[in-house]
Design goal:
- The protein has one domain.
- It is 74% helix and 6% strand.
- It contains eight helices and three strands, in the order H-H-H-E-E-E-H-H-H-H-H.
- Strand 2 and strand 3 form a beta hairpin.
- Helix 6 packs antiparallel against helix 7.
- The longest helix has 40 residues.
- It is elongated and about 65 Å long.
Length: 231
């Protein structure tokens, strides 16, 4: 059993995951830091940008609140609020406008009943359930030879996390698309600043691509373990 668990032949999956995740984190940090230091010419804060996107798209009943932390921006459909981190809420930079507009893009999706977003919400409890039980099942299956089928059950449970990540991709891409289109339509940023917004939104989307890639690699690694166990 321990041979399967520490088989160096599948360490490449872990190394690839680490490389991709680290690269994505670096790209986001670099882009956000760069464009957080460039004030937008019209002086629109993140909170104002978020409200502007909502108003342009006819979205009502959504509050915009400040939250503590760094990269803690999100849209909560249950409480119908957009939470913006300290460095986004009041800052009037290209980065803050881009991030805030993206979160309002999610609120717009919610108000328009965007199907991939609804599907992602439905998958949340299933994904949490599967993720919590996947590894215990796999470990039991590896420890007890007669319970080998538990490994396959664990792989099926973990696959829900992969499905969730795949569904997340179009949700995030669409939110960024809505954000950028509204920024252009409302002239929140000058034409010379739009390229910076594109960069911020693109690298943010890349983090979700990296997360999906990592989840797929993890699934392949579990399948590799299962195949080795049978051989």
């Amino acid at each position: 059993m321990y041979g399967y668990y520490y088989d160096s032949s599948y360490l490449i999956f872990m190394i690839l995951s680490l490389i991709v995740s680290t690269y994505a984190h670096f790209k986001v940090q670099h882009a956000f830091n760069k464009y957080s230091n460039i004030r937008c010419s019209k002086g629109i804060s993140g909170a104002e940008a978020a409200r502007g996107v909502l108003d342009f798209n006819g979205v009502t009943g959504i509050s915009i609140e400040r939250t503590n932390g760094y990269f803690t921006d999100y849209f909560d459909s249950r409480s119908k609020k957009i939470c913006l981190s300290d460095n986004v809420y009041s800052a009037a930079t290209i980065a803050s406008v881009s991030v805030a507009a993206h979160e309002s893009g999610h609120a717009t999706q919610y108000s328009k009943n965007y199907f991939p977003l609804k599907l992602r919400h439905l998958l949340v409890p299933i994904t949490q359930f599967g993720s919590n039980l996947a590894m215990p099942f796999i470990i039991l299956g590896l420890m007890v030879p007669t319970w080998g089928f538990f490994v396959n059950i664990g792989i099926v449970l973990f696959s829900f996390a992969v499905i969730f990540q795949l569904v997340t991709l179009p949700v995030e891409f669409d939110a960024s698309r809505r954000a950028l289109e509204t920024i252009k339509a409302t002239n929140m940023l000058e034409s010379s600043e739009i390229e910076g917004a594109k960069v911020v939104l693109k690298v943010a989307a890349f983090t979700y691509i990296a997360a999906t890639f990592t989840a797929l690699l993890s699934l392949l690694r579990l399948i590799w373990i299962s195949r080795n166990r049978r051989n």
